[in-house]
Amino acid sequence: MTDLDTLVGDWLTLPDLAEALDIEVGKARGLVSDRHVIGIKRGERTTFQVPALFVLPDVEGRPGVIPTLRGTIMVLADAQFTEPEILEWLFTPNDELGERPVDALIHGKRAAVRRVAQTLL
């Protein structure tokens, strides 16, 4: 297993995620339980954290979660990937995409990312 801290970089706790999205912590928990975002327990106190890169400004400049992330998470979960494995896949450069899958999603390349992800099924 690769070191996720090195791959991912910045992380957000649930309160940080809620603050970044300007929502209540309960709604941030809902994003996790509905798999709009995923994360792992990490850090000194093993708090649940999600990659900060999952939160981006939308076209109007308001913060939001990468809109196509949930569907990609679902495809990888269908391939029996665990959450740490999904994170590793999203943040590892992919030769077929020419970039990390998470960056491809940010750049609007949902179909290409899903096509590569479906080869894992």
UniProtKB/TrEMBL annotation:
Domain Rv2175c C-terminal: 67-120
Spans through the membrane: none
Molecular function per GO: DNA binding
Keywords from the UniProt entry: DNA-binding
Pfam families named among the record's database cross-references: Rv2175c_C, Rv2175c_wHTH
Residue ranges of every copy of the DNA-binding protein Rv2175c wHTH domain listed in the record: 10-54
The protein's name: Rv2175c family DNA-binding protein
Entry keyword annotation includes Nucleotidyltransferase: no
